[in-house]
Amino acid sequence: MFASRFLTRTAALVAAVMLVLSGVQPAYAAPPPNDNFADATIINALPYSSIVDNSEATVEPDEPQYGNYSPWTVWYSFTPSANAVLRANMEGTIFSDTNLTVYQAEGPGFGSLNFLGSVSWSWGGSIIFSAQAGTTYYFQAGSLNNVGELHLNLEIIPPPANDDFADAAIISSLPFGDTVDITGASIEAGEPNSPCHSYALGKTIWYSFTPASSGSITANVPSLYTSVVVTAFTGNSLTSLTEILCSAWGAPLTIRAEAGTTYYFQVSILPWDPGGLVSLYVDATPPPAAGFWFDPSAPSIFDTLQFYDQSYDPGGVGFQSFAWDFGDGTTSTGSSTSHRYAKDGDYTVQYSVTTWDGRTASTSQVVQVRTHDVAIAKVSAPMSASSGQTRTITVNIRNKRYPENVEIVLFKSIPGGFQVVGSYIQFVPVRSGNRTSTFTFNYTFTKDDASIEKVTFKAVATIVNARDALPADNEAISYPPTKIGR
User: Fold this and answer.
1) Looking at domain 292-369, which CATH architecture does it have?
2) Domain 165-284 belongs to what topology?
3) Is the pLDDT of residue 464 over 80?
4) What pTM did the predictor assign?
């Protein structure tokens, strides 16, 4: 494109030279009247739209260039009489390789220009900026390859109705929801900044609420608007506000609101955010949800249970206190605690939480303490046996607490370890004193047993569907080993 334009201009120059040689004075196309910075078109009123042909536009020595280099530029200037948020673009230009740059003038000449923003290849793109009364702004419009009709459009973005503190939107009842285009919002003189960030204020809007009854209220912005900051104040004027609390990055803002007191919510965006639709939702804060879990889940009197908080506060305030009632006459505090029960039973554990703003919730769970315990009293095997002979091995189980189904697995010794002989499950009742229940296995000794000349039997007891509180005595071996003959 640029090459074809260069050839066109070269052909035109050759034709002009031929005319001069023939004695005919050629006619040259004039550059646009606002080709140079000093001749910038003055914009006197808004909204403003302009169309200019930049075919013969030029670039001045030392002319600043941001974004894509524009060989054919024109200039405009505007000095607002009042503070305003402005939108500038080149919509309407038929080619898309446009470049629009906005500067703030600090004095005369290029050296005084302070770059504010640039839109390159901006078919539909806009520059939005806050203009100060009495300050002159320059607009440099150009194109990269194509030339022809350049459009410049400049307009004021009107502020929202609740832009100023004095015009704060009144929240008459809860729940409340509102969506506002904050693009045209401004900052008032003396407007307080939020302590939730270290940046200067961006654009702000205001809301007010006077509750008829006391209670906690929560203000939320959708998580999409992560650059929105919400700050709550009390006070009667912009200069007498007292900050209560603030939230940023989509977190909820919850405060304790007293009946008859007016609260102000400042909704602001951070300085780099150009604006757009911002939503605010305010409602009575829901109660927290209390929850906890404990370990082990099937405890015995020998276990020290660990209790852990699992509560949630939808208001985002967090919890101030935690109270435990273990159902056996003992209590505790803290978000996590421990407890050991002295005897078996069903204990209702009551757990209560309180948020920093005074909302409460409670929950309960039944902890079943059951001390299951069986023990292998003895494994009996014959003193001697022969290869091919079937003999009886008995396992005696002691049980003094609960009727249980118990599985016994019987092993025999082999070189390097033990091998399973057999297993079965049997009901084991509670027996007092030293009385036991007997498991009987019939085992036929083998040639392999005879080759090592002795066998030791091992039994392992497991309670079915219960946890043995003292598993150390659930394993035993026969003694002495059975001697095997050939």
Assistant:
1) Sandwich (2.60)
2) Jelly Rolls (2.60.120)
3) yes
4) 0.72
